[in-house]
Amino acid sequence: MSKQKLVIISYSDLNKDPRVKREIQFFKHYYDITTIGFADSQILGITHFDVSHPFNRIKLAARLPKLIMGLFSSYYWNLKEIKKTEQILSSLTVDFILANDADSLPIALKMKGRAKVIFDAHEYSPEENADSFRWRILFKRYKTFLIQQFASKADLMLTVCDGIAQKYQEVFGLNPLVVTNAADYFENMNAMKVGSKIRLIHHGLALPQRKIENMIAMMQFVDDRFDLDLMLVFRKEEYQKELESLIGGKKNVRLIPPVSTDEIIPFIAQYDIGVYLLEPTNFNNKHALPNKFFEFIQARLAIAIGPSPEMEKIVSTHQLGKISPDFEAQSLANTLNSMSRDEIIVFKQNSDVAAKGFNAKFNLDKVYQWMNQF
User: Fold this and answer.
1) Which of 154, 214, 257, 282 is the most exposed place for a label (fewest CB within 10 A)?
2) Does a structural domain hold residue 188?
3) What is the spatial distance between Cα 59 and Cα 65, in angstroms, rounded to a whole number?
4) What pLDDT score does 58 carry?
């Protein structure tokens, strides 16, 4: 019996988009998958259509007045990636479409009736880059329009955490299924030992709004047991230089080269504590429940965070680590200083237990059970 056909759309580099890559890895066991997006996921057995195109500053500038004037439909349907996607979809026989982020939803809904449409909103689209004045002027109303006009038409909607699901319900009357960013299950090879030097790790995309500098500042207040490695991917050279300057001659902080997404968990498993101090500068930051948090768990690390409510709920419930009382660098340093070696070992052991539930298969099974009705 031939498999049903699933198209996954995401206007991102699929090889570097952890959530989308996990979706592909999970669903390939059940469906014949075609992906549409930018760079290929490089997962064997997947048909990929690349809809990327060279950046053209002049054409972009010509389209911006449409956003300012609220001509959102005209703006959307004239995007090159949307036109290319429409051509591809028209040639395919499809049973399900999984549309990632609001940008891919209207084009996916063109197949409604021929295919069931699942909308993975990821985070809260109307506040996506709310720290940026330019984004608020150009894209906030546009993203709100996409959710307002199209989200209720999807057959199933997903988002990453309870707080964001509640916001979609309050503002738009939507009821998304929560599918967290839980990482693939990693077989525990960690001996749960902690040496005389306690090794801290923070990894991920280095964006100025995430204020990585706060974790660098934290290291001037920790005791001499602690070393911090920052494994960061930079989009802006200026921000990289800023952080390099802040690190300067500090002996307890290093910038280290990033590894591929598939190597993150086995690599960070050599550390003791995963650290994340994320100021709630916008709605999505306040309710962040990111990939790295679940990668900390799969790597069997203790966790030290600021009081971010979604992460705090899991850390507290499962006794995975400690939570700073606020988002000040010195407060998280004090929290780290209060952790004994024996406590860290217990937290790591608790992460080992939690890893069995907080993993992608356990998570995405909920979506598969819904799909399996059809």
Assistant:
1) 257
2) no
3) 11
4) 76
The rounded distance, in Å, linking the Cα atoms of 218 and 221 is 6
- Residue 367 in any domain: the answer is yes
Q: What is the pLDDT of residues 272-317, one digit of tens each?
A: 999 999 999 999 999 999 999 999 999 999 999 999 999 999 999 9
Does the residue 192 lie in any domain?
A: no
Measured CA to CA in angstroms, residue 147 lies from 43, 133, 172 at distances of 30, 21, 8
DSSP structural state of residue 112:
B
| Span 153-166, pLDDT tens digits | 999 999 999 999 99
CATH number for position 174: 3.40.50.2000
Q: Is 190 a member of any domain?
A: no
Tell me how far apart the alpha carbons of residues 22 and 33 are, in angstroms, rounded to a whole number: 13
Rounded distance, CA 210 to CA 306, Å? Answer: 13
Host domain of residue 68: 5-182+359-371
Phi-psi region of 260 (alpha: psi -120 to 50; beta: other; left: phi over 0): beta
Alpha-carbon gap, residue 64 to 67, rounded angstroms: 5
CA angle centred on 296, ends 292 and 300, rounded to 5°: 165
Residues 165 and 91 in one domain: yes
User: Higher confidence at residue 119 or residue 131?
Assistant: 119
